[in-house]
Amino acid sequence: MxxxxxxxxxYAIEKAFLSPYATKSxxxxxxxxxxxxxxxxxxxxxxxxxxxxxxxxxRLKNKTQxxxxxxxxxxxxxxxxxxxxxxxxxxIARALSLNEDLCEAIALGHDxxxxxxxxxxxxxxxxxxxxxxxxxxxxxxxxxxxxxxGCGLNLTYEVRDGILNHKKSGNPATPExxxxxxxxxxxxxxxxxxxxxxxxxxxxxxxxxxxxxALGSSSKERINTAITSIYQNSCDGEVxxxxxxxxxxxxxxxxxxxxVYLSGTARAEEEKAERMLSAMYxxxxxxxxxxxxxxxxxxxxxxxxxxxxxYLSSMTDRYAIYMFNNVFIPKGWTFVDxx
Length: 339
Hints:
Radius of gyration: 22 Å
Shape: flat
Helix content: 55-70%
């Protein structure tokens, strides 16, 4: 009897054990450009590997989640947020017998287009760009166009769809995409609350009691409550929480916006980020030749405004500060010894 290849073995396992509503690797709608398949890995496994090794993924470690350039070692960054989302999405997929590999690939790519300085940077670029700026749209642009020096990663339709539609307003085409969308919200309201308490911005006792009663008093309890609710209430390809848990989660999200995301402290830092990004946007718009070579090459096909946004959104927090200083802060003279 001929032994199955590793990929064929995965296909067989998915057919035998995944839900009839799961997205089977064998049935992917394919890539934008045809390419030779991998003998060992499914297309979704291959996408996962491409994402975790790409440059944009590595830069996430120095991009803000909520707090700009935090001094402590345990604050969440855009990278640790992404890993949280991947873990929660896989847990949901496992509970519902959906495709964990597809969930992980979507989660790893969902925030690649995020700006420096978190959602503040996104709001700023959205104001500056005549075509607007949304991080989910930019994340898709990163994987389609910007990575690999303009060649893109050539990901599958299902992963690209999940990345584009991961926001609450999106409508993912697969149940796995819905898992990631929910996992994103579960992750950020919980770890951002922990960071706000760690930073002394608020105390856990400040959270309304009805939210704590519905979801739990610790991050572990709240995440477990959310995943359990999704497991108990999802069916026929729908992925959803019960109304009570969903309502409490939205209340916690609103509380975080009021007390943390849009607080006076956050606004003060956002004003600094706006001055910095606005100045660089204007400078590079007028001096496109000063852009890195790979971005200059994009000008043959895309507008200046788009390419400048591509460059600014790719920056980490500390690189944005470095570039601002390099462009706008005078350097001291080096005097030659005249003796």
